[in-house]
Design a protein that fits this description.
Layout lengths: L1 H6 L1 H28 L12 H11 L5 E4 L5 E3 L4 E4 L1 H5 L3 H18 L3 H9 L2 H18 L2 H11 L2 H6 L2 H37 L4 H19 L4 H8 L1
Parallel strand pairs: 1-3
Antiparallel strand pairs: 2-3
Length: 239
């Protein structure tokens, strides 16, 4: 009975997707912790990460402001503000400055009107999530009975479920997800390499060891944006 259950095509497809997603989130969590934890050498900097951000903003003559607080560090193009968490703002280790440099890189690229950065800002982080949600719905329509999904859509009045049953939607949504993630991942990578590292080197106070730690931290951070690409082949295989 168990063997028949595990060899069922629908069950195998969902087990494959569950395993793929679990591995994705596990790797992403490990990389995120690697980026956020302080390194062994805290150093004695003459300025805080916030002061480093303000110095860089002044050097590049940006109108960007710096705000401390919230649960994540990010650059908000709407308010032209670099947001830093209290943890990063109060630390003086290399990874903290690397984080600040990365967000400042977003601000610099945005003010330079770099195409990928502007598209990234316009689309927002919700866009890739929305694309993958549509892809997941499309996959569900293929793995389970399409007729049942269509019936459910009529019963609930949710037209989106019926639309998701189309194989055309699956192809379009998967393509959209790939394109959106390509924009996000490319911009994140270019912001880190070489721009963020350049900002660290221009400060003139970081040693080669500091730069090496920053390079490792930035690489781990950028990789987290590349990981979602691994889910797309999983969708195709599951079909």
């Amino acid at each position: 009975m168990l063997a028949e259950f595990l060899t069922d095509t629908k069950v195998a497809a969902w087990l494959w997707l569950t395993l793929s997603c679990s591995m994705l989130f596990a790797v992403r969590l490990i990389l995120a912790r690697r980026v956020s934890r302080p390194d062994d050498y805290s150093g004695t900097r003459a300025f805080t990460p916030v002061e480093f951000a303000e110095m860089t903003i002044a050097r590049y003559r940006l109108s960007t402001s710096v705000a401390v607080g919230g649960r994540q560090h990010k650059f908000d193009p709407i308010t032209d503000t670099v947001h830093l968490t209290h943890d990063v703002a109060n630390r003086r280790d290399s990874r903290a400055y690397a984080t600040v440099s990365h967000e400042l890189g977003h601000a610099i690229r945005f003010h330079d009107r770099r195409l990928l950065t502007v598209l990234y800002a316009k689309l927002g982080l919700w866009a890739p999530t929305a694309a993958l949600t549509v892809t997941a719905l499309s996959l569900a329509a293929k793995v389970f009975d399409v007729e049942a999904l269509v019936y459910l859509s009529k019963w609930t009045g949710t037209a989106a479920l019926q639309v998701a049953a189309s194989s055309v939607t699956l192809g379009i949504s998967t393509t959209a997800a790939t394109a959106l993630f390509a924009i996000v991942a490319s911009d994140e990578w270019r912001t880190s390499f070489p721009l963020a590292l350049t900002l660290m080197e221009q400060a003139g106070v970081f040693s080669e060891d500091d730069i090496a730690i920053c390079r490792s931290s930035l690489k781990a951070a950028a990789t987290t944006y590349l990981l979602p690409f691994a889910i797309l082949p999983a969708f195709v295989i599951a079909l």
